[in-house]
Amino acid sequence: MGSVIGASKWFLCHVRPDRDVPHHSFAGCRPEFCIHSIPSFVRTMRDGVLCGDMGSNCHVTMDARMDLTLTEDQIFIRDEARRFLASKSDVDAVQRTVSQGKGFDADLWAAISADLGWCAMTIPEAQGGVGLGWKEHVLLMEAIGERLAPVPMWSTTCLAVPLLMAIDTPAARDWLERIALGGTAATVAIADMCAIHPFGGTGVTATAQCDGYILQGVLPLVTDAQMAEVILVPAQLQQKIAIFALSAASGAECRALDTLDRTRQYSRLELADLRVPANARLDLDGVNADALTDAETIANLGLAAEQAGIARGVMDLTLEYIAERVQFGRTIASFQAIKHRCAALEVDLAELRALILGAAVQTDPRELALEVAGARALASDLAFRASEEAIQLHGGVGFTTEYAPHLYFKRAQACWHMLGAPERQLDRIAAHCLSGGEAA
Question: Lower CB count within 10 Å: N or C terminus of the chain?
């Protein structure tokens, strides 16, 4: 079956504390929810990573060379990002943005992209970026998800930037420089947001003309298109995938959609015989299929990190609420049944973080794709369960708009299907295992 250390760790031997073993054998990661001592096969701290002896019944070979420990600089990046967003994108601020129907906080985006330079994190220094790795970036994406920050961070840095880096032409590098400089939002117009390979170009066709191209197609769900300065459109050009850069003045019809998730903008983009100049095309002779796959993998990695943040954020809200809610003369956090449910979520979150950090430092593209698929499958499930539990544990007020759990629940539902639902991610891992390691 090959060595699928990261992704098949979840797929082949994932331990579900709420199904496979008694609850009393697990402990919460916070002292106030400690039930019993944590077993030897999983030791975790709330802000740490999974470690320790995995046990004789777990058929996983851990790579001793992979160090998931955060450096002092990475810890500083994580803590400062969380501190900043706690002050600028708290529940009240997000609620105000949602009530205004915008799904976008312009001031917060200006601070993140221009003042703090978060968008430059993974862009090479040659294009004005910081030149750090994806390990640092997933820490930022988790912080974004934790606060449901209504900014086009994922669309810009996890969709557009990896695709521009895959194209690697002077025109693409120019857009990278503009994003690194700050203030420039970007996105990718994907024909099928639920597809496991979204950059395939299906849905839009390009026809060459003497002075440019004609684009034809409908893109029913594009993230953050309304505030994007550039929209990257993969299109089928004969037998190749070409990438076109569309600006707000290109003439494309962009209509905002009223969706379940109000913390992120979604739009419908229609290209009806849209004429674009020759310099709107960013690639030279089509984009390599492997380069597109690598960009898709990074988009999924960023989304998994955001989903981990969603789980962390809604769990923190729940822990705060149950520590204050009094029933039968005691806080409901002291009830054993409540402890069990919180502990199970904490253990799964620690596992998810380990998967994400492991994928972020993975250097083999095929192994990376499989590890990210496993992370996405677990992240989608955990974000949904954590927000669902939050509504349940908040009691009668859990579903009301005055409280925040419904915002996390709706974001979790939206993210579930994006770039491949969990069953599609697991199908990808299964195909790899059943083919003897040939499929990825």
Answer: N
Backbone torsion region of residue 177, taken as left when φ is above 0, otherwise alpha when ψ lies between -120 and 50, otherwise beta: alpha
As a whole number of angstroms, the longest Cα–Cα distance in the chain is 79
Give residue 250's pLDDT. 86
Torsion of CA 233, 234, 237, 239, to 10 degrees: 180
Q: How far apart (Å, rounded) are the C-alpha atoms in residues 415 and 433?
A: 26
Please calculate the CA angle 87-92-93 and round it to the nearest 5 degrees.
60
Q: Which residue has 């203030």 as its token pair?
A: 183
**3 state SS of 266:** strand
- Residue-wise pLDDT for 113-157, tens only, equals 999 999 999 999 999 999 999 999 999 999 999 999 999 999 999
Question: Which DSSP helix (H) or strand (E) runs through 277?
Answer: strand 266-277
Helices (H) and strands (E) in the chain, counts: 13, 9
Residue-wise pLDDT tens digits, 11-45: 333 433 333 333 332 233 333 333 222 222 223 33
Which phi and psi angles does 282 have, rounded to 5°? -90, -35
Report the alpha-carbon distance of residue 90 to residue 95 in Å, rounded: 9
What is the phi/psi pair of residue 230, to 5°? -140, 135
Report CA 312 to chain centroid distance, whole Å.
13
Burial class (CB in 10 A: 0-12, 13-18, 19+), 413: middle
The pLDDT-based confidence of 439 (bands split at 50, 70, 90) is low
Q: Would you list the DSSP string of 30-51?
A: SGGG--SPPPTT-B--TTS--B
Q: Model-level pTM?
A: 0.85
